[in-house]
Inverse folding.
């Protein structure tokens, strides 16, 4: 192997869009080179035991966080792990699985940034933070369609989990390099076919491409691509906004900047005519395709490929 | 924890007496301070898959040796592991188990010394090498009484495994610090209640107590406790023989030497009136009690306790 595996984290609350975004980034990086790990597999208790103990899957005490840390460190150094398996379908803990990390490892889950030792293993840390109203909509849709719950059950479960979400999940935002929030435009009806905007918080903990050159900073308040200097959790960040109604013309410059820096990305540039970038099948089967999604995938893939270049030896 | 865990290996072929000796040594060390790991848990395939693939459990390719290496290294540094579980009763691979190592870890199994990385994790390496005739007797007894096989099935299985025993199991003798061979006296009928002799090969890879002072080296060929300089696999070793008919008087000096060096052992000195030392319940329920067994347990426990002393910090 030319370089150690590069570890990308996709962390966020239940139904925040982790699996969908993970699949999209794996497409850009090349699925044959990507190992996907879900940290839900590190649950200590199966579904029946959690119900019995009155503990939610979001609580660190419900997860082998120490084992997760060790496994992340092993993967980062290119060593195989015997990963436990949490079977979402049956809610059981099954026979573990041997995993030899490929070139890129995407680690998605609830608690990936919850400890220092775990955080230290990631090259790029993404946190998904859709507005709670949108996350609720996504969770109801998924859990009723794919996991056999009623809407009332899902809502009750979310309410039960809220204290743990607040205490353990949302604070992880502070440790991320990129915070991704898809959200519906304020003037749009809350429908399935609405084109979501994306708000990307770019924390200067990793070196983002210089967007000031390409985005007309703040000059036009209603331009579909905007960059603004802000504070996030009290710390300076850049915020890149891409509206759902942005056009190919609007995003061309950003895409080309990313792709010129990392030529491997060029084929995935949507403005290069690639029909698949920014096109994703959601976990409940709906087709998503948008420029905001394309820019999000490209920017994350950009950081993964840059990290790989740095660690080549 | 005052010191890192001390790792003792008990390696040998199937039915060589690993589990029984492991239990006996855990008694001497204090069961509350001992974690027992069986490397059979690192089988890659369940029983049905092994039959299908025509591979025996003795073959390294049938085991996650790399994962075993990593787990041994973790235990040695006092870190927990999520150990896979091979269910001997059902022949299945089950939900893994969280193990935080205690003061002493005894690792028993077939392939513990098969790689350099694994061997490097052990503080004391014991290899069990009963004569094949005795091992066959033990295996037939155990597998017919406890695992539901017929004698013919057990014999056929042993024959099928013999090439792998020769190629992968027996060569591990060379890496051990102590080779333990219980064997029936040549003049004894091959019966269950016969008092077995023990032959302990002491390889100078660890510092054994100076036996020359206490054992009348070679002067009396028929003394029930004898020490002899020999070669084992071409290399110089001491061989300590303790006959089954040795008396308390015969073993007193050896026991006191071990116990004076490591005072924690003193309560377990059989000549000190301890009724449990050298008394073991075999895996098929028979009671074993003898001075050869007592000396073997004490000598191994002696090395574990000495290693703990050295690594105290």
């Amino acid at each position: 192997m030319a370089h150690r595996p590069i570890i990308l984290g996709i962390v966020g609350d239940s139904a925040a869009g982790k699996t969908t975004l993970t699949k999209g980034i794996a497409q850009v990086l090349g699925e044959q080179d990507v190992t996907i790990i879900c940290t839900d597999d590190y649950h200590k208790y199966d579904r029946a035991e959690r119900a019995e103990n009155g503990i939610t899957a979001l609580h660190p005490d419900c997860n082998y966080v120490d084992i997760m840390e060790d496994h992340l460190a092993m993967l980062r150094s290119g060593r195989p792990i015997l990963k436990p398996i949490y079977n979402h379908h049956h809610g059981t803990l099954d026979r573990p699985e041997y995993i030899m990390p490929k070139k890129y490892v995407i680690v998605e889950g609830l608690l990936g940034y919850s400890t220092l030792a775990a955080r230290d293993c990631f090259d790029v840390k993404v946190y998904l933070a859709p507005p709670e109203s949108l996350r609720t909509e996504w969770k109801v849709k998924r859990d009723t369609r794919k996991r056999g719950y009623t809407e009332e059950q899902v809502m009750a479960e979310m309410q039960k989990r809220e204290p743990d979400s607040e205490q353990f999940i949302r604070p992880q935002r502070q440790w991320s390099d990129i915070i991704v929030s898809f959200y519906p435009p304020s003037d749009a009806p809350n429908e399935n076919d609405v084109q979501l905007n994306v708000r990307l918080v770019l924390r200067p903990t990793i070196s983002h491409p210089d967007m000031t050159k390409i985005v007309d900073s703040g000059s036009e308040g209603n331009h579909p691509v905007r960059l603004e200097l802000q504070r996030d959790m009290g710390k300076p960040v850049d915020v890149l906004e891409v509206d759902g109604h942005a056009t190919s013309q609007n995003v061309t410059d950003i895409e080309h900047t990313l792709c010129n820096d990392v030529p491997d990305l060029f084929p995935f540039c949507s403005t290069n005519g690639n029909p698949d970038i920014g096109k994703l099948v959601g976990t409940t089967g709906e087709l998503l395709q948008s420029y905001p999604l394309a820019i999000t995938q490209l920017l994350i893939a950009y950081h993964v490929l840059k990290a790989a270049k740095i660690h080549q030896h």
